[in-house]
Amino acid sequence: MPEMSVAHFYDELADDYHLIYSDWDASIRRQGNALDALIGQDRAAVLDCSCGIGTQAIGLALRGHRVTGTDLSPRAAARASREGARRGLSLRTAAADMRRLPFPDARFDTVVCADNALPHLLTEQDVLAALAEMRRVLRAAGLLLVSTRPYDDLVRDRPVSTPPQVHRVADRVGGGERTVTFQLWHWHDDGEHYDFELFQLLPAGGEWRVKVHRTTFWALGQDRLAGLAAEAGFVDPRWRMPQETGFFQPLLVARAGG
């Protein structure tokens, strides 16, 4: 099943996910600050429904918000909880599908679904189901924050790879050794979906150890996603760009309708 392959992708990646960043802690703080500015209230009850290993959830908890994290990957969600505890934070996490959130109605002030997580859902029916669940668990006029890649540009250009990123990481591999990360994209004939391969080259005793993680995304355009959000019960959906927000991806910002 597709959801099982996505969970497997992030289960396998959970221990090494931080290696895609040049400085994960700096990214945590930067992303948390950008999202906090959009939330605009103190100690909001926040659900990060695609928390991964905690990049946005930890960043928001550091800003004083009451954050709950869920993710399809049990290993990623468990690591997010451990990373939060290591920083002295109370971050509750659980494994859950964003199309079936295990919370009562009107539980949260804000729902975050960041880092291109929603496009793992490959049909309008699934995306609409997830957005409807986010609307259900939000309080009246609650805030939705969804980030994706800039797919309107990417569908036009159809890139097939990303340049290698070379980082020095001391905490996991020791000695400030280099790691290398790059991506290959294999576009489907429909021009909207693509198979994705994430390559990680990790130092291992003077040699390179290669890990490859594979999944599929839907290059969901901004107007189409905003339309689905409106159909799910959100009002005033609009896109905010990185140069405006300081967040690394475009953000769909909307409010739960009455």
TrEMBL record:
InterPro entries: Methyltransf_25, SAM-dependent_MTases_sf
GO biological process terms, semicolon-separated: methylation
GO molecular function per UniProt: methyltransferase activity
The entry's keywords: Methyltransferase, Transferase
Ranges where the Methyltransferase domain occurs: 46-142
Pfam family, one: Methyltransf_25
Tagged with keyword Transferase: yes
CDD domains cross-referenced by the UniProt entry: AdoMet_MTases
Gene3D superfamilies: Vaccinia Virus protein VP39
Domain of life: Bacteria
Protein name: Methyltransferase domain-containing protein
Organism per entry: Streptomyces broussonetiae
